[in-house]
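The instructor's notes for this session suggest beginning with a concrete chain rather than abstract definitions. Hand out the sequence below and ask the class to guess, before any prediction is shown, which regions might be ordered.
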Amino acid sequence: MEKTEVVIAGGGPTGLMLATELRLAGVAVVLLDGLPERTGESRAGGIHARTLEVFDQRGLLDDLLPQGRVMQAGHFGALPLDFSDFDTRYPYMLAVLQSVVERELDRRATELGAPVRWGSPVVGFRQDATGIDVEVGGPDGTRRIRAAYLVGCDGGRSTVRKLAGIGFTGTDATATGMLADVELTEPPAGQFFGHRRGAGDYSAVQFEPGWWRLVVQRHDLVMERGSTLTFEDFRKNYIEIAGTDFGMHSPRWVTHYGDAARQADRYRDGRVFLAGDAAHIHYPAGGQGQNLGIQDAVNLGWKLAIALRGNGSDAVLDTYESERHPVGARVLNNTRAQTALQRPGAHMDALRDIMGDLIDMDVVRQRLGLMITALDIRYHTKGNHPLAGRRVPDGDLSTAVGATRVYELLRTGRPILLRLNGNQAPSVAGWDDRIDVVDARSRDERWAVPGVGDIAVPAAILIRPDGYAAWVSDEPTADGLTEALAIWFGPAA
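After discussion, reveal the predicted structure:
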């Protein structure tokens, strides 16, 4: 029987990101997918600011940025949202196809020793007090892999979730979205999103020179999952709503989806975890789904590594659900609201007029935009410092070895005690094997924190591997640090 530490079911963005996180920590990983090979389907079309920051933290962004196109505006229910003044190095959405993101993550996972094993579906498992036996199907019959944990990143119809008996509750579809990646002989003068007309709305966005993504949403139609949408069916529906087909031809991908919104009742069942679409599905309003799954993976990866290295307690693994389940629930809630805002009729026209006026107010625009981009997430963390539990800003730093940035320090995937501006206290004695200590000076006196405002640069920050602050102090003191270290990284050596 093959043995490993973590089996990941699903070779999409979530599974690939989790594999890279675990391999950075030296964890043995087997990454499985039931498909015979990668489909090449374009799928999701954008990466938001917080995910761009996560990629920067792991050194993945330099190769990805040139392959996308910067769009400084997003939307909420097809009402435009300006991101350009958000407090991040990446105040925009990067229009880049999921297939491109998968290619980059696949390359990194393979380099780190976790290539996808295709044609290898998880078909069963049995867990006990010391591990889990995962049954894997394939052309040569069923085989077993012994592991410590199994993570289902295997999509909305997750086999792992079903085998674990985890409920997937929510709301059924009330509308259908149809999508086609095509070339146009009569392209529109500019890009547009969410023009409402009749019983639906339509959009046209150019991702790469020469071809476009057209989308039409119908509120008077619910297509069955698994049913086929032909290119001619798509063209007919698009013309009916938009009044033109822009001379569409040469389709690369045609698909449909509904606005069903469901979330796993729990993200953990003993040694089994769920992440990405296996844990939540929703309408792709605002382009949040791929981002949500990647951030699930980054939250879970370091916690599994801590547990496997014998330092972290089992309670650390429980924080994956307590932190990420509310974030997923919020996305389901806002996508339902966005779908409702796009419904036809005079009453909704009136509501959209009012919402449009409200979004013109900075406080509303930023509240909605920070939610869509996930820049405002705050995990429950002891301490009343405004940065506690939030993502740490990517401040410019000077160290004994030269200039750097906070996110460059996170490239190794290890936790960091960052001591700033000459504050030599506190220490991490007893945790030296698990925590990197960095002394640096901030080039700025204040840092901008999304949703909070400017704050004085702290004296010291304990930064989790996912970039969130586990402990913060404005004074050269160790008050509360020992407790935070023990909670997140186990007892002192």
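Then share the key points. The first helix runs from residue 13 to 24. The domain at 176-258 is CATH 3.30.70.2450 (Alpha-Beta Plaits).
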